[in-house]
Amino acid sequence: MEQQRENEEDEEDTDDPRIAELILIKSMYPELRLQCLDDQLQRAIDEQNFHYHHFDDVSSITVLFNVDESLECRLTMSVDYPSLDSNCLQIFCHIISNKNQQKQLNERVENELIERNSLIQVVPKIIELWNEMKSSFSSDSKSKSNNVNIEKQSDSHSNQIDRYWIYSHHIYSKIKRKSIIDLCRHQYHLNGFMLIGKPGLICIEGPGDDCQKFWQTIRSWNWQRITMIDIEENLNNSQHSQSNQSTTTTFESFVEYIDRSAVFQMLAAKNSDKIIKNYLGI
């Protein structure tokens, strides 16, 4: 009996505090639609298994959650948790087009992370900050849209080359795959790739307007989870500012992949694998 009690105490001592906090956050804020990139870990959280041990004790845990339809968050919890640093949280807002506003939001969130050292403390503060700031962002965005609508349609914006990195929980549907290919190859002028399976990855590259329309279109479809990983803007200026030659892109066409390793090899060869590796914690 005493031995059993000691074993139970040892088990409690080795419980991962990250699991406990994720379970609590999911129960406290179900509207966030919290999801882990690791399916086994997600199942443990759904089942409220406080004694679940992550398959790799030295790896980080990455979770996604939505404060609302406008704000997506990605949080990486390292093995040093509850220690949090300013780089562990990435946010993407669909109603902010102004880089200064995005920077302002990021800075405020980073300050909150520095002051707090646990997810239970950080999440409610992010919700509070966003509720406080989103009305001003939304009104500024609408005002800007009305004032520069003609400018956005100008040739200079159309010639801007952007690159969007998109993550999906999975991509299996033949209908979605065909629609994505048709959008890229026929409706818009977009190159890149799509990795089908679980998880699913999409990278598009082309005119800024086309990238934006593509994202707005597929985001409206029914997905278990789809989120923007990163946006690289104005690639033609950043890569070719010293040249008057026509813009070249990283991808020559839009290609569908089944083999994940082939995607990483292709991206490594093009020196473009950093964003995906950072996102997946590789």
TrEMBL record:
Lineage: Eukaryota, Metazoa, Ecdysozoa, Arthropoda, Chelicerata
Transmembrane intervals: none
PANTHER family recorded: RWD DOMAIN CONTAINING PROTEIN 2, RWD DOMAIN-CONTAINING PROTEIN 2B-RELATED
Protein name per UniProt: RWD domain-containing protein 2B-like
CDD domains assigned to the protein according to its UniProt record, in alphabetical order: RWDD2_C
Ranges for domain Small nuclear ribonucleoprotein Prp3 C-terminal: 165-245
Pfam families found in the cross-reference section: Prp3_C (PF06544)
